[in-house]
Amino acid sequence: MKSPLRIGVAGLGTVGSAVIRIVGERAAALEASVGRPIIVTAVTARDRSRDRGVDLSGVRWHENALSLAADPEVDLFVELIGGADGAARLAVEAALAAGKPVVTANKALIAARGQDLALKAEAAGVALAFEAAVAGGIPIIRTLREALPASRVTRISGILNGTCNYILSRMEEEGLSFADCLADAKRLGYAEADPTFDIGGFDTAHKLAILASLAFGTRVDADSIYIEGIANIESLDLATADELGYRIKLLGVATRTDAGIEQRVHPTMVPKRSALAEVMGVTNAVAIDGSAVGELTLVGPGAGGDATASAVIADIMDVARGAVRAPFGISAADLEEPVRAPIRTHTGGYYIRLSVVDRPGTAAAIATRMAEQDISLESILQRRPKGRKALETAEDSAVPLVLITHATTEAAVRRALDAVMADGHLGCAPQVIRIEKE
Amino acid sequence: MKSPLRIGVAGLGTVGSAVIRIVGERAAALEASVGRPIIVTAVTARDRSRDRGVDLSGVRWHENALSLAADPEVDLFVELIGGADGAARLAVEAALAAGKPVVTANKALIAARGQDLALKAEAAGVALAFEAAVAGGIPIIRTLREALPASRVTRISGILNGTCNYILSRMEEEGLSFADCLADAKRLGYAEADPTFDIGGFDTAHKLAILASLAFGTRVDADSIYIEGIANIESLDLATADELGYRIKLLGVATRTDAGIEQRVHPTMVPKRSALAEVMGVTNAVAIDGSAVGELTLVGPGAGGDATASAVIADIMDVARGAVRAPFGISAADLEEPVRAPIRTHTGGYYIRLSVVDRPGTAAAIATRMAEQDISLESILQRRPKGRKALETAEDSAVPLVLITHATTEAAVRRALDAVMADGHLGCAPQVIRIEKE
């Protein structure tokens, strides 16, 4: 029998505790699969006294992650602390410098320092694995890294944040307001006390940056992502989307375009019959468009202790098996510098909801402003949507006017709306939601 | 630079031609990823003269697959001939005996002889990879083999045959008959001239047997699968399912039950909002229930030259990288003999459509027969379904009576229906469709 793989786990939150529990429960199956025992030998966490529901007797306790990473009886360092800097980064760097493989669930760290850490791992000849950093239990990292060599990936899009999808799903299904759904999500533990990172789209952006790097062979480029959160979405938008055959989802989308790589995170109208539209609640999903494979969609739990531990343990097993893959599929030194396509060059359909002062000729004046920018309209809706009892706009005399455009550019839409605003037709700022037809 | 990986491809149909074309087109990317060139050096096919749209100059032509497998300049044998026996099997065995890794898309071969071939591959210390054998471009084999070590898989279900899903989708969407849709599928190349293998459920059964083996660590057991095809499904069933909030799909389902491993292929009513229900047309999908991961669903193209080549090439790249995994995840010698749960112990809800003679008291008499078997009914429908213009039953006096049961056993349903038939209430044989709530 081969020597055991001795694991040190830094961070004992829900995920860390689940990793320790499952590695214990499935010890026999894991050993049978790789021919060597998998053992957690050492841990560290902020609070030693807390009961985590797992047996830590016989497991060495370290005062901090750096000390854990340096433990000569730790073969593999599992980082579940989180954060782009500080203890997590220092300990991961120390482990790699000591020639130890690293498994991490830390999306912020990989989004900020992925290429640098990958270079260090490759120099040390060890694995740096981060399946758990994106979309919880969905094996999207290994799918991009190993399952699609035949395809040039042209697009990757996903529902990558369970909190946002939960809120949008409930708003749609129950006609509730954003604020009410957010309060419920907090109560149920689906949203943090400070939910900005989730609902502002930043969490989705970190994950998207990692996926785009793997999909396109480019350096992780989290800074250039266009980001809009979901806080401005109103029930009226969801109801109107429903009437038009769409759902609204917070998507992360990365596409190869003629102008370069476009990365964006924003509320998006997707056709009801599309794979992503059907994903409700805290579930995540990722869709990949590849030249050979066509469209492939993976749907599963995006968070939760056990599901995330599932991804961590799959990475641990790769290490146990001796697999050392370039963390981003190709050598980190060969990752290309991405040409960034700015959001203004984005081409697609748009949903534009205006709160217009109810005067004759207003719709015609607005349509003219659109035409001046060569924007052609697929439809114009001026009726009050089903089930809406009262207008929610500031002025009682204002009525909602919804425009759906054919494919146009972001720049054209912004110029047209600037002109409409300057004309004084609007009761408040326009609501703009991009449409993804596929 | 490492030495090239020299591939021999046996079988130059749509998939073989696509493999050769894509390996050529993506030569640089493939080489960059594994650090060695991937080259097709030799091929064989029935008809040498046919134009396949790929450049075969410089590729050695063999008269048969055995000779190709023996070629000393072939490092990896790719079998795309098909069939559980004959040339495919002999050549695969010869390649393994010669210590050469094998990549195959042959579901019939793996379903019939998977364990035996895996033993041979393990004895030779080489890979036997068959990602392309199940669900085309969907990376389901590697997901089961590598991504879910933390989970005890309890259930795997899927839409594994594009022909059937295409036919059922069109029947539902356009209200067409089975015969009309099948004729269209043939015309469009989605169905073979002899479609029995697809529409009879046998193709799905082969694939299910392979998935069940990987999911449960049991020997591939294709012979014990309960199989029903889709030829008896009528538009009336699809319309009634729609009214009740369901779609009808041909599913392959393998479950761990108290009675053992249940493997079944049959038309199934699935709730419209479920991941599998939304899969329309020739697309395939596989859903996995695992203890740690929860529910994971993969959706993508189940057939087609490029999508299947995508899976073949992913396997080729694993071989190029030197990865040698046990074909079924664990040593083939350790695959357990499955305890087979017979279909009569299956527990679930049932849709039962009876064509009853329209006499007072008939419904009550039938309900009594159900009650005698402890079957409790969720609903009884006796109205003519929406959009149905004329009754399709044999007798004009017969009316459709639809029963939806709560969870019960197959044995109870069969006993109850035997009694109902003996009572002489039916105009023709009952239609029975199992319901999967998840």
Would you give an account of this structure?
The structure is a homodimer of 438-residue chains. Chain A is α/β, with parallel strands linked by helices and 438 residues long. Chain A folds into 3 domains: 5-133, 3-Layer(aba) Sandwich (Rossmann fold); 141-302, Dihydrodipicolinate Reductase, domain 2; 346-435, ACT domain (Alpha-Beta Plaits, 2-Layer Sandwich), CATH 3.30.70. In chain A, 35% of the residues lie in helices and 24% in strands. Chain A has 14 helices and 17 strands. Chain A has helices spanning 14-25, 27-34, 65-70, 87-97, 107-124, 140-147, 162-174, 178-187, 196-199, 202-216, 235-244, 305-320, 362-372, 410-422; strands at residues 5-10, 38-44, 60-61, 76-79, 102-104, 128-129, 153-159, 226-227, 246-257, 260-271, 283-290, 294-301, 347-357, 377-381, 398-405, 408-409, 431-435. In chain A, the strands form 2 sheets. In chain A, strands 7, 8, 9, 10, 11, 12, 13, 14, 15, 16 and 17 form an 11-stranded mixed β-sheet that branches. In chain A, strands 3-2-1-4-5-6 form a 6-stranded parallel β-sheet, with helices on both faces. In chain A, a hairpin with a 2-residue loop joins strand 9 and strand 10. In chain A, helix 4 (87-97) runs parallel beside helix 5 (107-124) and helix 5 (107-124) packs parallel to helix 10 (202-216). The first copy, chain A, is elongated, with a radius of gyration of 24 Å. Chain A starts with a strand and ends with a strand. Mean pLDDT of chain A is 93; it is low at 390-395. Strand 12 of chain A pairs antiparallel with strand 12 (294-301) of chain B.
